[in-house]
Amino acid sequence: MPSLRLILRSGAFSALLLLVSSGCVPRYGFAGGGLPANIRTMAIQPFDNETSTAELQKEILDAMRRELQPRLGVRDAPVEKADALVRGVVRSYDVDVPVGYSATPGQAVTSRRKLQLTLDVQIVDQTNGKTLWEKKGLRAEGEYAERDEPGGRREAIKRVVNDIVEGAQSQW
Fold it and tell me: What's the topology of domain 35-170?
């Protein structure tokens, strides 16, 4: 192993110090992904709800406003002023799909349940009318303990938002 004195005399250390101090060190990172440069603001419309679960529309809207805009790097804006618009339709909401059962032979009790949420989503560039990302039949599942349907719904909605962010980022 070379000694420090040898490194200092060889000039390699001086060259390395010069590169570091001058800012000529290569920077690594990922380019691409995300929204087009002209998209700085986004409006999220309440999704049309074709299910009988009324609270679903508000819960999806709240989760999307809380997560979608910050993760995509845009600000909230009214529909008429937004660069991009997110809209969609909640197609189905199926609850009470049994997942796990108790092992007691005398009493069959379901301990875990699952719900499925299916929706259509579209992100539109309002400056030119072009669809930036679209997914029909986006499905997410949420498991929940007996009598905790809201917990399973929150899990499914969280997965939907993650899928929208990942899908939107992968398109550009």
Answer: Rossmann fold (3.40.50)
